[in-house]
Automatic annotation (TrEMBL):
Entries under Pfam families matching the protein: C2 (PF00168), MUN (PF06292)
Residues in MHD1 domain copies: 533-650
Organism: Canis lupus dingo (dingo)
GO cellular component: exocytic vesicle; late endosome; lysosome; membrane; recycling endosome
Family: Belongs to the unc-13 family.
Alphabetized SMART domains for the sequence: C2
Domain of life assignment: Eukaryota
Protein name (record): Protein unc-13 homolog D
SUPFAM superfamilies (alphabetical): C2 domain (Calcium/lipid-binding domain, CaLB)
PROSITE patterns: C2, MHD1, MHD2
Amino acid sequence: MATLLSHPQRRPPLLRQAIKIRRRRVRDLQDPLARPAQEVGPPSHHLSPEERALLYEETLYTVLHRLGQPEPNHVREASELLQYLQEAFHMGPEEHQQMLQQVQKLEKPIFCLKATVKQAKGILGKDVSGFSDPYCLLGIEQGVGVPGDSPGSRHRQKAVVRHTIPEEQTHRTQVITQTLNPVWEETFILEFENISNSSFHLDMWDLDTVESVRQKLGELTDLHGLRRIFKEARKDKGQDDFLGNVVVRLQDLHCREDQWYPLEPRTETHPDRGQCHLQFQLIHKRVGLAAPNPATRWGTGPACQAATILFLHATQKDLSDFHQSMAQWLAYSRLYQSLEFPSSCLLHPITSIEYQWIQGRLKEEQLEELATSFSNLLAYGLSLIRRFRSVFPLSVSDSPARLQSLLRVLVQMCKMKAFGELCRDSAPLPHLVTEALKTGTVEWFHLKQQHHQPMVQGMLEAGQALLSLVQDIIVDLRQCQHTWNKIFQNTLKVDLFSMAFLELQWLVAKRVQDHTAVVAGNPVSPEVGESLFQLYVSLKELCQLGPAPAERWALDGFHRWFQPAIPSWLQKTYSVALARVQRAVQMDELVPLGELTKHSTSAVDLSTCFAQISHTARQLDWPDPEEAFMITVKFVEDTCRLALVYCSLIKARARELSAGQKDQGQAANMLCVVVNDMEQLRLVIGRLPTQLAWEAVEQRVGAVLEQGQLQNTLHAQLQGALAGLGHEIRTGVRTLAKQLEAGIAKHIQKLVDVKESVLPEDAILPLMKFLEVKLCYMNTNLVQENFSSLLTLLWTHTLTVLVDVAASQRSCPLASSRLKIALQNLEICFYAEGCGLPPAALHTVTFQALRRDLELQAASSRELIQKYYCSRIQQQAETASEELGAVTVKASYRASEQKLRVELLSASSLLPLDSNGSSDPFVQLTLEPRHEFPELAPRETQRHKKELHPLFDETFEFLVPAEPCQKDGACLLLTVLDHDTLGADDLEGEAFLPLCSVPGLTGTEEPGEVPQIRLPLTYPALNGDPILQLLESRKGDREAQVFVRLRRQRAKQASQHAPRPGR
């Protein structure tokens, strides 16, 4: 008989009865005061033989009478489910067959379809108002065996319920007025006998009541409504309108269905008639046990066979979701306390109970049972949290997720209305968790302390045990900071890290203070000192981990406990470093480590040793500013002392290894390595300010030190060590340079001694080959800094040798030419395309003077004469003073006639060279140099008596081609003389007009208006000219001697008539 569902009282399922029986037995046997609440363990989950047999019978009955299509993740075959049950209950074959036969003889259940009409949407509007008054007729048609896709089946789907199902088996929903989206939420129980030939039918109708035309016109809203009025007029009064139907074969249903079904039409007039939301559940009319929701899984989930059986049982017995969740919570909360499965399995029943909680739905006994389950799980969860370090070790990858899941379960449980009503006396969960964590942290500390307790009770062993304990605490705090704290903060707003740090630092401080007090009263051995240092470093790391202190820590000022051990720490650091340096030098073979690394093994060991000292200093990082400064001074002093000791040791090692060496090249190799090692050491020492953080030290001690004290201590020590290393490096490089200087001097001397027939380029080859071999060797074996220093020494020595040889070869142009070419090639060699010395280091004052001298010495006599006139033309251009007087000329060149025309206009402000206070001036005109114009004789102007401002106004023409006039040094020499009757003419002065500046000489056009040129008179150099001196040294060159004699005569005349002051 189908009836509208209410909530009838049901007897408790068999599984719940079994649990209650077991709990009573346990409660009778257990002393409630036997253990405190936080130690509550899980009760036994074993069943008695009677309970086990009843439960096995229920599960067999469920499998034999399953209904509906299997779920996708469920097992289809009943044989597989029966085999699984036999294995799960540990039944023997005979016992299993016996119970199976008993169950098969039991009466079959009454099969029912639990159908819920939820709602509909988008249905047709049949009334004048555009809406409908829908209701549904539903029932089960039995005995129909027509296949679902046959024409007969389609015909029956068109039939309405009242034509296919007897009236007593037809059910009707309420009428929902004036809507197109009705909501019913009505449930019906429909019985059937054979699922294979039964179908569910639902018709939806629009209730049509008798109304007057006036009422219908009042509801009219549009033309569609008017059309419906005319349609109503043709219809029988009170006849309901068909809205659509749904037909579903029961054998196509799963045990539970929840879908939207389209409303099918009887004709094709309106194919889209909306949808209807239906829920189906195939059940038995036989009370059974509640099964857990199959959606809940632990591990990989219960076996699919078990999920299938539980699902079928709960469905067939029509257990409400609330009672299923209640049974699931009671079972899982107990099983969680004894079995290994994720606590997240408890979230689903918690959520379900909370959503459906109504306290009056449970009996007093059930409420007590639920409250006990809450208390037991909370106590068990707190015990796990207290021991979370061992229960959830990070060595297991899913431990953080498991702990987070447990906390979420406890949080959700404590938020439940059921928990608040049944466990009113429970403290807030964050408080309970905080207390559990504090207790667990202290317990964990004592366990670790006991674990590290040494077998031998000595001072060293006690220190090592304490060090291991502190290191374990640091590891634990890091885990709390990076992993666990995030979980507790996000879930409960509990700061696990800060709480654990505060608890542990008090415990650590007490034990460290006791240990250092014992050590301070006894001599400190190196081993104990090392243990103390490691303990100090670990405590520093522990304090750096801590949060910003809101109050004073127990570890504040802990460094004072270690103050007596500082001298032993510093001494041991130096002793260990010194021993390491000595051992490194003794094992060093003074061979480069590689092609790119040119220092030896001892330099690497020394760098590592200094890095270790710097690391020790950074580890120490003493908090007190004054003491920290003194410690830094000691570190720097020891480091500088080690550097100088290393220099002495490495030089002694080089002498030791080279003592038995006959090959001088091998000795040079070792010397190169020694110099490179020292250079590497200098680089390492130079990094001390950075490695020891001098800036930070200076900022810390600036307020307590006197002005300049830091500069006079740390910087003075460092500069002294660097200066000593620099001296040692320069000494080594100078020794290498001396080995090459003799060879360079020898090849330069050979350069000037070769036969004249040898070309200069060939003469310098031996010198360049020697340098190429030696410098390539040095570049291979020296680091760049030392190689540059060597190049500087060799360059200076080479220039000195060249200057000496050039001075001895002044009168030999050939030798000077070779030296000049040698200097050019040496400059290229030492520059080495930018890899050698820079131009600034090459172009010294000595180099520039030597280059000028060799340029002159290598030139021929005529080239020197030409250079002399170039210098006089330059002197003429730079002279602006007319203290000797001046001449005015006009000069032009006619290329068509190859004539140089000179108009000598006048002279002015001449010196009075006669005794009467005047002069008898005339001008001599010559084209210089004479070897360029050998055919042109000198010309002279008329003599003017007693005249210091003569007006000559004379014109001279020189027949000369343009080519010699355009050469460097070509000029018109204007010599102003004072005529003397009895003796030689006196020199008034000379003026030089460069021929290249004469108009018409460089162009093809004839000159137009020729400008006047005023030339101040000049004297030859009184102190001698270097070019004249060089020409004078060439005794065998007649042309040079004649030129020098004339120039000397002019200079002598100039010296006799120097201008009077103030003129």
